[in-house]
Amino acid sequence: MTCLRKIGWLVLALTLFGSSVSVAQSGTTQYKCMIQMTNYMGEKAYIAVSLMDGQGAYEKTLYVLGSDKKWYKDVKAWYRALGKKTPNISAISGASVAGGDRSVIVLEIDNAKLNKDYKLRFESAVEDKEDHAKDIEIPLTTAGLSARSEGTGFIRYVRFSPN
Amino acid sequence: MTISVWRYSHLALAVSSFLLLVLASVTGIILAFEPVLQKSQPYRSDKFNELTLAQTLPVLKKNDAEISELSVDANQFVQIKGSDANGKNLTAYIDPQTGKMLGVPTPQTEFFQWVTALHRSLFLHEAGRFFIGLTAFLLLLITVSGTLLIIQRQRGVKRFFTRIVRENFAPYYHVVLGRLSLIPIFIMALSGTYLSLARFGLVATEKVSPKIDFDAIRSKPERTLADFAVFQNTRLADVQTIEFPFSEDVEDYYTLKLKDRELTVNQLTGDILSENHYPTAVLLTNLSLDLHTGRTSAIWALILAVASANILFFIYSGFAISWKRLKNRVKKNTYSADESRFIILVGSENGSTFRYAQFIHQQLLTLGEKSFLTELNKYAVFPKAEHLIALTATYGLGDAPTNATRFVDLVEKYPQPQPVRFSVLGFGSHAYPDFCKFAFEVNQLLARQSWAVPLVDIHTVNDKSPTDFGLWAEAWSQQTDLPMPVSLELLKAPTPDLETLVVTSTTKTAQPDGTFLIRLQNSHNQRVTSGDLLAIYPANDHRERLYSIGVVNNELQLSIRLHPNGLGSGFLHRQSPGETIQARIVNNDHFHFPKTAPTVVMIANGTGIAPFLGMIDRNTQKTPCHLYSGFRESVSFDLYRAFLEENRSAQQLTNLHVAYSREGEKQYVSQLIARDADFIAKVLATKGVIMICGSLSMQKDVIALLETICQTKLGKSVSFYQSHGQILMDCY
C-alpha cells in the first residue's frame, strides 16, 4: 500500500516536473457526462455547464448545449456572469437537447479544482418557458462525480463516468 | 347564392392574411432550397438502404472513437456523436458501411437560421408562432374555398380539369395555376396548421419514458452485436437515433428511436427491454415536418418552392381580379330610375359586361338622353322608360350571373305601366356549351310580357368581340335613330375598309313596294358565305344599312323590298348592271349553314329568304333541307320559284312549303310550322338545326310556337336549343 502510494507520488512528481507539455496535459481530466432531460413539452433546451467557486461566483464555462448565440441570453444567470468577456465557446458547444432526450458530453476539468470547494452548475432554459439557474449543482468532488444527481428543472438527472 | 358566399370568403380570407402569406411564401421559397443544398453534400452511403444495425454497429465499435449517439437525418446521412481517441467531443458524418469519417456537420448557416426563425415566429416568439399558425389555417380555408370555386366554375367535380377558356391574364392563370398547385398548397397549409397545433400542445404528443424492469435484466448469455436479433432485423433506414449505453454496466442499454417506435436493448444479451410505439400524433408531426419542409426529398422541396411562388402570384392576380370587379361596378347614376327614358340593365359575374353597358350609358348621356344603368336584380317599375336594354352574361350551367338571379321573379312581379321597347344583348363564349343561355331566357321572358315591344332581335357577343357588339349597336342605332358609334374609341376595332362591288344584274320592280333581286360581284376574292351581311352607306355618312347575303353562282345576291322613301332599298334599286357601290362585308358566323347538321329547317318570310337561296345553291352535299317560307302574294314568290324548283329536282332542297298571307288560305309561315310540329320536334331531337330569317314579328311568333313544341314534345325550353346552336336566327 505505502509502496503503491510512493509510486503514485513519484509518478505525480514526474508528471508535474517533467516536460512542460505533459504538465499542461496532466493538469486536466476528461469526464463523460450524460444529461437526461425530463419529458417536458416545448422547444429544445439550452444548457450551460459552468464551474463555480465556493462562494457561488462564476469561474468558467465548461460546456454549452445549444449552438445559436441568439438564444444565449435566455440562459440568464450564465449570460450575465459572462458579461462582456464572451469566451470563444464554439469549441465547447454542441446541439441543444429536447424534452425526454439525453445528451452525452465530455467535460474537461482542471485536476487542481477537484475536491477544493468548487461546484459544477447546470443552468437550463427553454424558449418561452422558465429559466432554471440552478437546475443542478454538483460539488466538484470525487464523490460528486461518481453519483447520479437529480435535477430540479428540465434536467431529470446527470451522470458521470471518467473517460 | 352559394357562389357568392365562397367568393366572398375566398376574398375575405385572402385580404385578412395576405401580408403574412407574402412573408411566409417568400421565406418558404428560400427555405425550400435548404434541403436541396444539403442533399448535394456527398455524405450519403450508396448501400444505405440495404444496411442493418447488425452490420453497422460492430463496424463502429471497432472505431477509435467512443460513440454516445448515432443519428440518421432526413438526408439519410449517418452522424455520430461521442469522443475521439483523445477524449475530445466529436461529431462527424460517417460511412455506415465502413465506419470511415466522411466529414464534420456544419451547423445551420446563420442565414437559414434567420429565415427559419422569421418563417416560424416572425421573431416574436409565441405571439409570432400563433399568427403564423393562424395564417397556415387561413391558407387552408382559402384553398378549400378556392377548390369549391373551381368546381362551381367548371360545373362539376368531374370536369375539374377540363379546359378553361382564356379571357384575361389574371383570371385565367389564377384558375389554371390554382388547379395545378392546389394539392401542394393544400398539403403545405394542412401540415403547417398541424405543426402549429402540435407546437401549442393542442394535439397530444407527450413523450413516454421507457419502462424497464431492472430486476429482470440479465447479463447472460452474452452475445456479440452482430448476433443481436433485434439489430439483424432493424434496417438503418428505419432509424432516427440510437443512444449507446452510457457505461458498460448491464443496467445501461441501447435506446433505438426508430421511425415508428422506441426500443431499449440490453447491451450484453440483445434482449428487448421495452418497446413503445409512438402515438399517432407523433407520427403525424413527423409526416407534417417531412411534407412541410421537403427535408426528405429534394424534388418535393422544389415543388413546395414553386407552390410558394404560386401563392405570391395568386395574391397578385386575385387582387387584380377583385380590383377590376370593383372598378366595373355601377357608378352613381346622373339621373334617377324614375325620370330616365333609357334603362340599361346588366347581368355580370365578374364585371366585364359592365364595360359595354357603361359605354352605351355614356353615349346616351352625351346625346343628352336620360339614361339609368343598374343591375338586373335592381329591376323595378320605371315610369318614364321607353327603352330597356338588357346586357347579360351567363354563369355556370346556363345560370344567371350573381347580380341577375332575382330578375325573372321581379319581371313577373313588376309589369311596366307603359309599352317599353326592349333589346337583349348576351355576352358569352362559344367555348362553353350553354352559350348565352341566360340571355336567351331573358329575351324570351321579356317577349312574353304584354308591355314589352321587341326593338331589335337578341344579339350575342362571343368572346367580347367588338364586331359582335358593333352588330348590335348598328341594329339598335338604326331602329332608334340614335348614333351608337361603338367600335371606334372604346373597342378599338379598326375602321373597316370599304370594298368596291360591281352590280352584275338586277331584276327591278315596277310596284312601289315590290321585291327585287340584285347581284353583286366583289372585286377581291374575299371570302363571303351565305348568311353574312352586306353593309352599305347610301348617303356616305354614319347611316349604315345591312342586308343578308345569299351567295349564288359565286355572286352576292340580295333580296330587297323596295320601301317608299327607303334610304337603302331606294339606293340599291337605282343601281344598274355595271355600276359600282362601296360596301363592307360583315362576317356573321352565327348564321352560316351548319357544317354537320343531319337536317336543316329554314324558316323565312319575305326577303328573309335571301341567305337561304345562297345556302341551297351551295348545298352540293345534299344535306336534307326543308324550306318554310311566307309571302304576301304568289307574285312575291315568283322571283324565287324557278330557282327553288330547279334545286329541288337536283335534291339540294328536300321540301318546299309556302304560305301566302293575302291569297288563298291566307296563312302565315308559323301556321305551316304548327302543322308540321311533330317533324320539327324530331329535327331538334335528332340534333337538326332550325334557321330563322325574316321579320322580328315572324320570329316572335315562331319562337313562341317552338317554345310550345319544345315544352310539350321534348320537355325542354327552346332556350336550350338556342344555346346549343340548334336554333339560329337573323331577323330585323
UniProtKB/TrEMBL annotation, chain A:
Pfam families: DUF2271. Keywords: Signal. It comes from the Bacteria. The keyword Signal applies. It comes from Larkinella rosea. This is DUF2271 domain-containing protein. Residues 1-24 form the signal peptide.
TrEMBL record, chain B:
It comes from the Bacteria. The chain crosses the membrane at residues 130-151, 172-195, 298-323. InterPro entries: Flavodoxin/NO_synth, Flavoprotein-like_sf, FNR_nucleotide-bd, OxRdtase_FAD/NAD-bd, PepSY-ass_TM, Riboflavin_synthase-like_b-brl. GO terms for cellular component: cytosol. It holds the Pfam family NAD_binding_1. Residues 342-481 form the Flavodoxin-like domain. This is FAD-binding oxidoreductase. Gene3D superfamilies: 3.40.50.360, Nucleotide-binding domain of ferredoxin-NADP reductase (FNR) module. It comes from Larkinella rosea. SUPFAM superfamilies: Ferredoxin reductase-like, C-terminal NADP-linked domain, Flavoproteins, Riboflavin synthase domain-like. PANTHER family: NITRIC OXIDE SYNTHASE-RELATED. The keyword Flavoprotein applies. GO terms for molecular function: flavin adenine dinucleotide binding; FMN binding; oxidoreductase activity. The keyword Transmembrane applies. Keywords: Flavoprotein, Membrane, Transmembrane, Transmembrane helix.
